[in-house]
Amino acid sequence: MSNKLDQIIDVSISLSTKTITQKGFGTPVFLGESMKLDRRVKSYANITEVAIDFASSDPEYKMASAAFSQEKTPASIMIGKKVVATSTAITAATNSSGDIVNINKTAHNLESGTSVTVTGFNEAEYNGTFEITKIDGDNFQYTAASTPSATPATGSGSYTVSETWANAIQKCFDFNSTWYALAITSAVEADILSAAGKIEVLKRIFLARSSDADNLDSADTGSILYQLKQLGYDRTFTIYNGDTANYFADAAWLGRQLPTTPGSSNWAFKSLTGIIADDLLSSQSSAVFTNNGNTYETFAGQSITRYGKVASGEWIDIIRGADWLQARLQENLYSTLINVEKIPYTDAGGDIIENKIREILDEGVENDFIAADADGVGKYKITVPDVADISSADKLARLFSGVSFTATLAGAVNKIAISGNLSV
Q: How far apart are the first and last CA of the chain?
């Protein structure tokens, strides 16, 4: 619309409101082998949606149910697929173009990138381990070792698929990386170790469950708790539960805690709806704790989680809180870079950087992740160097270096010691 005032006063308004996607810390993924999904990962908002894809007897359904049954529940959960197929018959094989092979298969939820081992054909070029390059209806394609000597293939072909848990986790991450916490349907020691190694690289967290009795002996070097402790993993934590076949304490604990703001909630002393607590001797509990494991036990009529440690001995809430802090600092500074014309390489520019860091640290104080003094002032210190003290090389590279902060964590209380004296 024309405005005569434009002739006298010219006003233009630009919007500096570009937003970026924030990393989430509240969504779990439950990874299993039921092969019910037509994709690697699928999101669900409630158990009714899960029931469309999974039977109530499927472990993935049971994990989702455990998560959605807690006092606090996630807004959504994800279920991931680990591909498993054993001796699946191939009815025919043809060579469609050079060494590209079309195989008509029985219905199976595979996808491109899956590694399959093909055996049984008379033509050697069709046999071997191959990566699926395309899915087309009831056919999948792979590239033969060399141009086959005859088409179609003859013989009785079949294929098998057997991913490691680590490979399956990576596939899920590549498909959708918005989840933060992992639990798997398996409680087998080797599977836990496979998943733990991968999750450490992906910078997520993994909650395993184990009912192995050797965990109740702190000196047993074969226990999964002992092995994980020796590996010093910061992102894997394990809950001992006597019945891992029927109860999914891992999914329940994630369901209860992931809705909370990172760093604001102690993972200890939480009741898990639908999970049967263990009746352990104090010596057995101590053995679990010695190797940085966790338990679900009953005290004074109340079942509670104890105590919330990862394999390295750090507290889970500290790991999750630190992940949150790193992500929000990066996001806040990046959001500033894309919403202003520039941050000048001056002391004033340094003040902008300091203020953006302060905003997130203050949020950490509000979340009870970073400690505050009696006046509510956060116990942290931000150091931003004077521009004059930054090297010429960094200035030429437009790298504002030397920025740092220190902060005191708020921590949490897990035990209380009281001494008193009564007299008459």
A: 89
- Name the token pair of 26: 């509240």
Q: What is the pTM of this model?
A: 0.87
SS (H, E, C) 216-228: HCCCCCCCHHHHH
DSSP secondary structure, 236-251, as one string: EEEEE-S-TTT--HHH
Strand partners for 116: 130
Q: Which residues pair with 134 in a beta bridge?
A: 141
**In 3D, which of 386, 279, 264 has the Cα closest to residue 325?**
264
CA distance linking residue 104 with residue 158, whole number of Å: 11
pLDDT tens per residue across span 196-237: 999 999 999 999 999 999 999 999 999 999 999 999 999 999
Residues 6 or more apart whose CB falls under 8 angstroms from that of 353 comprise 333, 343, 384, 400, 403
Omega prior to 152 cis, within 30 of 0: yes
Q: 50-100, pLDDT tens digit by residue? A: 999 999 999 999 999 999 999 999 999 999 999 887 667 776 666 655 567
Give dist(CA 167, CA 265) in Å, integer: 32
Beta strands in 372-423 (DSSP E): 380-383, 404-407
Q: For residues 169 and 185, what is the distance between their CA atoms, to the nearest angstrom?
A: 13
**Phi, psi (rounded to 5 degrees) for 66:** -60, -40
Q: Is residue 222 exposed (0-12), middle (13-18) or buried (19+ Cβ within 10 Å)?
A: exposed
Place of tokens 């158990």: 47
Residue at 159: amino acid letter: Y
φ and ψ of 118, to 5 deg: -105, 135
